User: What shape does this take?
Amino acid sequence: MKAVIIGAGMGGTSAAIALRQLGHDVEVYEQVTENKPVGAAISVWSNGVRCLDHLGLGNETAALGGIIDSMSYIDAFTGETMCRFSMAPLIDEVGRRPYPIARAELQLMLMNAFGHDDIHFGKRMVALHDGPENATVEFADGTTASGDIVIAADGARSLARDHVLGRDVERRYAGYVNFNGLVPIDERIGPATEWTTYVGDSRRVSVMPVADDRFYFFFDVTVPEGLPFERGAARDVLAEEFAGWAPGVQTLIETLDPDTTNRVEIFDVDPFHTWIKGRIALLGDAAHNTTPDIGQGGCSAMEDAIALQFAFRDHPDDPLAALSAYESSRTERAADLVLRARKRSDVTHGKDPEATAAWYEELRHEDGTNIIRGIVGNIVGGPLT
Assistant: This one.
């Protein structure tokens, strides 16, 4: 079988590796000309780690990952520790340590595992066609690619999603923008092996360790959609938005590089359960665009890849049956994660101020039990958990 995969992000490359493990002929096409992921890093929770283990990348993942031994929540204004707890109970329960990883490094690891030189860059999809024997992709440069199946991992603004559903799909603005980047570890901001989150005023500031003695950081700012922003202005914007916050936050603002700090408006898409049309199937953000509030977007894409592999393992001679099995195995689980992330986003970002205030009060009495229970609930339910 020949598979054409559109998109060399985490989902697309994971799917390419997974299908190649079964011995299939796989071609990957990516619209960008070089590895420039959106966002500085990603939380690879234990379900995502299990997927990478399954793809033979366990050692590489551990080498790229930061070590989180504990989590804490800090009062945004007083700097008081609201709660702090060990991650050991989580690791014991799910059997894998989670790893924050710099996104570009994770992406390069996956590309290299598939074969960087085997990826066709600079190929922007403009049309899809499904036929009785194969499916065909047209690219902006006039070329085409055909295969027994097309796996469309073409991201949050997916063209393939509209094709599969037969309608234009609108993304929903979640009500906040996320500023993110990488800085050297500085324990004035947070402990070197801790995921530290400052909360207050319906906003978050967070740091977590990644490899090479760096923190991945992010700031959530609740603002209207579409505000103008000039690249390089992040420090000035954040200094104004977070004036009066705790000293650790001020240190982070002073430390960050405004020229490399990303600003991303956060959207999601209402869940839907049609992921295939003939020989064309959606995967990753194209199928389940979610907010980052529970850290499961990338992990869910990797789960898609493993589920796709299992479907073709079980239906080796029938691509249509395999795609149908893939869809059946994934849509409910992925939809649940989208809605879990949306619910957490709404609480974190003050959609209901009373609910947000109640959450802050809960954090002051938290011993980790409830938070870890919620994280475990996000982790379990995939093809390897």
Observations:
- DSSP finds 13 helices and 18 strands in the chain.
- Residues 2-171+268-379 form a domain with the FAD/NAD(P)-binding domain fold (CATH 3.50.50.60).
